[in-house]
UniProtKB/TrEMBL annotation:
Entries under SUPFAM superfamilies matching the protein: NAC domain
Sample GO molecular function, one term: DNA binding
PANTHER family in alphabetical order: PROTEIN CUP-SHAPED COTYLEDON 2-RELATED
Span of domain NAC: 7-81
Source taxonomy: Eukaryota, Viridiplantae, Streptophyta, Embryophyta, Tracheophyta
Pfam families per UniProt: NAM (PF02365)
Name this protein carries in UniProt: NAC domain-containing protein
Keyword Nucleus: yes
InterPro entries the UniProt entry points to: NAC-dom, NAC_dom_sf
Entry keyword set: DNA-binding, Nucleus, Transcription, Transcription regulation
Amino acid sequence: MMARTFLPPGFRFHPADVGLVMYHLKRKVIGKNVTFEVISELNIYKYSPWDLPGINFFWSVLVAGMSSSKTYRSSQDERAQ
């Protein structure tokens, strides 16, 4: 794994599919220099699926979305009048 590169404040990495494949991944595969190492390399075979970095982030977002409470009111509800 390469040394961690610190990105400038406010850096946003959100390329379109074509830009991701044709520019970022292509340059990484053929070994050309890239300005910032935004795509890190990870040997996924060294980890179990539940141990992969980042999985906790997506799981916590999913759980947070499911646990939000909503108030359903109807015309018969005293608070709605």
